[in-house]
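Narrative progress, year one. The postdoctoral researcher (J.K.) led the effort to move from monomer predictions toward full complexes, under supervision of the PI. The following entry was the first complex the group processed end to end, covering 1002 residues in total.
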Amino acid sequence: MTDWTDYVSKNLRLPPLQAGRECEIVEDVARQLEDAYQDALATGLSSEEAQVAACQHITDWDEFSRNIGERERARMLPVDRWAADASACSVGNAWFGGLRTDLISAIRTLRRNPAFSLLAVSAIAIGVAATVVTFCVLYSALWKAVPYPRPQELLSVAESNPRDGVVAGAVSAANFYDWQAQNQCFSAIAAHADWNFNLTGVAEPERIHGELVSADFFSVLEAVPDQGRTFRPDEEDAGKSNVVVVSPRFWRRIFGADTLASQTVTLNGSKMAVVGIMPTGFAYPNKEVEIWVPLSLSPENRQNRQGRWLQVVARMKPGITLEAVQRNMDVISQQLQNAYPTSNLGWTSHIVSLHENQVGKLRRPLLLLQAGVVFLFLTACFNIAGLVIARATRRGAEFSTRVALGAGRVRMIRPLFFESILFAGCGGSVGILIAVGTIAFLRSKLEQIVPTLGPISLDPVALALGALLTLASLLICGLVPVLHAVRASKRGYSHNKERFLPVRQAMVVGQVMFAVTLAVGAMACVRSFVRLAAVDPGFNPRSALTVDLTFAKAKYKSNEQQVAVLHDLLEQIRSIPGVLSAGAISDFPLRGNSMTFRLAREQDRDLPPEKLPQAGVRWVTADYFSSMQIRLLQGRFLDNHDSLSSPTAAVVNRSLARQFWPSVDALGNRIRLADDPRWFSIVGVVDDVRQLSLSQDEVPAIYFPYAQKSQPWLNWATLVVRSSIPADALIKAIRLRIRSVDSDQPISKVEILEQAITDEITVPKFAATLSSTFTGLAFLLAVIGLASIVAFAVTQRTHEIGVRMALGADRYQILKLVMKQAARSALLGIAMGLLASLFLLRLLENLVYGVRGLGPAILAQVCVASLLLVLMACCVPAMRATHIEPIAALHYE
Amino acid sequence: MFSNELKKGSAELLVLSLLEHRQRHGYEIGKMIEQLSHGQIVFRIASLYPILCRLEDRGLIAGRWIERSGERRRRFFRLTAAGRHFLQSQRDVWDDFVLAVNQIVRAPK
């Protein structure tokens, strides 16, 4: 009788298929031929005749093979086709064929465990993405902070006076020109100062952020214009300085053109010729600056040593050290102190690299963030390594069998390594893609939070870092299990129970510690954010908006003119239907500003000016307090009756009342500005507002009537308009009314007050969200780590558990047995985490608002939460152990 | 005996019809076709096997190995839900086709 399986095997010629598939086809076809043979026999044919009849069913084996083969190959996945080809070619090239087979086997293993694969790939992806994104921010903020040639030569030069507590303050013009003339260490030195301009003569007058710069400014930075030129030395002289260099953004916005011709712009009422356009990306001293105008000082102003208002940037001569520069400048400062003791006594020069000046404050928080992210990434990698090991350990019996059948050590380890390559490769690629997406979507948000000079972008350096991280994850996830496997192969797989556990326990201790520390940090950030969001600013931000105005000095020279135009503007705005009230102030809250002056009470008459107490001074119009809805504590608000011709009056805030008149009523007392002989009677006390920022307490402050001001330099005001109409319509109406009073009057800033408050808490909110997300991830990783240790313990001790249960051990004892190791690691991790948190809290107390004093409460909460999480992580897999049937357990292995 | 073209056109319908009420193995399907058509339609294994594979690929039938006592294991096919649906629609198409052809072929002269 024919062996039909053998017959089909010999005739059927199939291309490489998945292992086992060819045998199935052969068996299927053979069974049918055999059925045909049996049928033929049943009809009375002889064995030979029946065999011939059966064989008639398939006469053209080539055609049949091609038919089946093509269809089978077409329905295979590419990876399976690859694997099949690999095993087919492994006959010829065993090593490479084996390599491919192992890779395929790794792919299949991962496909069989989609949850595990997804977990591992996403852990690496998130780790890589978070690290790359934070690195991009860090790189833009720290390394690309000074995007000029030979940045190491650029210095920021400032004046310090330790006696007055001034560190790295502004520089007086006379001192700057003396430094310029006398120094031997700078190849160039330049001064600059923020200066805003009213741009008129255009469809919509604008307030432009500008910079007054000395002639050497561009040569210090070695910045070359894209078109035109920068300033000539003689353009610093009064009368020749009607030239301006502009940013490309300004150029396009105002002229809508690309090339420079002989255009002029009207700035603060003067016609200025545009002589150059800087390249895109030139943003010194900050990104807001759109025009650079020569610092053209009168001879008197050049000799002024008292007014310190200039920033100085310099380029050292090549080969000179920072210490040599400091020594040279110290000598000059000493000479100036000797020559001009009145203005210069105690003043020294303070020199730091421009880079340090730009990024000094950012460095610590950013590096802290980066370190945290890298740690998280490493934790993820080690955790995956742990999981790979746990799985490899479960496959111990399979490995033992393979070794017994003669598999070499390399062949044993290679599939494990390939699994890690796949995790790392997929995770790394996905991570880089996520990073690209995050940077693209969050660029503007990130740039708002981290003030960088250059744009935040995904550089080749960041991409290289992504590749490096992928490699690192490959090494950790690949080498740790491989090393473990190598050790295991020496000892025998089935006896490799406890060997690697200490390492994994150490990893879990580290993870728990990191998660606890992060949780404390996140808790501090969240508490800080919640506190900040709940802060009462002292005014009602709802349904109000602010408009900043600066009056052109040429047009509104005198106090009377400024007061009159502001009065007219406010009257116009109040007449807009829907406007409930409108007022103005010189120094609006939440802008980080509080003009401070020396004040004299009546009892201070005999004090010299420098001994007089200082306080915040603000000039307000009638209706300011009611527009802001600031609470009146005593007396009355300032109103329209407080004009230039009426008795001088002032309102103080609660802090000033308490500080200046601690034991008596402030009302009725008189006070004056040190440089103004007029006495002002206190007619009211108002509540404090958050002047500098939401996180800073109010300073003692006094409010004078704008109408009674005697300071013509005060040519600006912030209008506050409370209304019942939508903001867009209101802004449009305000613009029209302002133009009806003065068509050349620009508006420099319009802000919805509620938005300003929201902006104030953007950074704390971001910090709270970010740290909470990281904490969630860290705890997730720690919980996975712990659970895997317990699960590992349960798997390893199944037999022992069975014996113990058979001998009468109860569930509690079993739980204790399997949870012991994990619980010990977790408790050690929590303890170490809490210890590390003590240092973190001390650091955060200075960095984050409102955390001081919260330490013990935060530590206690985190401790309880961590214990609960740890208990949960251990209990779930441990409960499995209590459900083990003793009989089944005794049969285990 | 019918020509190969005629057989090809109706092969899928025949296989699906035979699997409508019970599962059958490959050779059995071929044998049933031959018996029920009184030997007029015969499919060799060489032509029936690829048809079964094709129908399985399209999800109209599903095959699985079944071992009956005293017999070697065989691959049995059953109709899937999609196959049942397809069979119904193909039957209607076939009826319409036959009717249309008859209206021409048997039309009174």
